[in-house]
User: Fold these one by one.
Assistant:
Number 1:
Amino acid sequence: MFIINCPTCEAQQLVTNKNIESVHRTSEGMVGYVRCPGGHTVLHQFAMAYPKPKPPAAVLALREAQAIEAAGQVEDEAVTAELHLAS
């Protein structure tokens, strides 16, 4: 069960999987055409209802450390190239 916003009924409606008419993968995430209890077809964005969870803090810290390390390597390579060109 999940909730959709039906603009025709001007209300939130609780629906089940049986109300799903079709589901599609798009660049914006999963979307589907869902029929509300009043019989109206509504375009529902599942990604908005179920946002992708944030990674754990340890993963974020590791990514940040890798980015800093990669930036340092790029700077070191640039300095080495400048020294090589100067000589």
Number 2:
Amino acid sequence: MKRVIIGLMIAGTALVAKPYTQADRIADMNKIAESMNIIQSGFFYNNYDTVEAGVDQLTTTIANVKPIQKEAQEQDIMEKFMDEKYQMTNKIVKKISTKSLTILQRFKAGDSAEAVQAYTKIMGQCMKCHREIRHW
């Protein structure tokens, strides 16, 4: 009985869930840029609460980022493999999530140099995506 109910809930969620679009991605990117600015302000003012707010916003927003519907529904297997947008997007999201938690841990421990280094690595992941996937 539990399996049937859980199955129906999952199926209902899948039917209601809207696809991730380019507009959604742009909104998330703007939110990520805002989060990075908040973290940077926390560094400049040596304020843990500000850094924590930025990291919370960043981790929440980055969890929403995924390949857009066009990339996720690519039918040609060879094109999907060669393009690598799908795999690369997921890998970058994971790296940013990990490094954002490193920022929080290092800054809380008083190691601001390591926190800034993790921040710089996140910026590197952002630029990697914009260069290789978005063709900047």
Number 3:
Amino acid sequence: MNLNKHLEKAKRLDSLQAKMDPETEWEIIIETVYGASLHYIAYFCEKSFGNHLNTHKGLPKFLDENNLIKLAVLFRELDMHRHGKWYGSQGNGETVERVRLILIDIKSECGIVET
């Protein structure tokens, strides 16, 4: 996927999750935020230094190795929420609020400006 396709997909997923109801669609919100985050990070990495990972496996290590420590920390936390809530089947409004805040921070770290 090329640079602009990553950004387009990230924005589309971001827009979708923003319309979802945290009380009834929490699993989908978490997964969609996760997907949007992957694409924002891929866009940023590709734009910044010409490569990125096409998977979430190993992404925190890749970010650490490229001195993107804050992005790595944010993604690790997001991954923890995703794994804990998806496989643990425990959703709540606080988790949705937190993953949405993580997404805002990831976008900020990636230089994504809302218009």
Number 4:
Amino acid sequence: MNEVIKLALGIFVLILGIPIGNVLARNTPEELKDGRKWFYLIILVCFVGAIVSLIIRNDALLFTFLFIAIVTSRSIKKDKKEVKRRRKSKK
């Protein structure tokens, strides 16, 4: 039962990463433009870290890496949508 609660709490925190990433993208657009390649590197490192933490069976590391990857990827995805919207409004 204890493991089920840990997993449920971890999944809940991962789901919270989606709106947090959206808020970060909305409030920091200039940082997202300048450091796009670094954000992709962060996402790659986090997914590799998540796979390694699955192998060594460390749930805390797994959820930490996945949370960072979700927040970062949502920030980049939200930024891309806003750039497309701005281009359409300029035309």
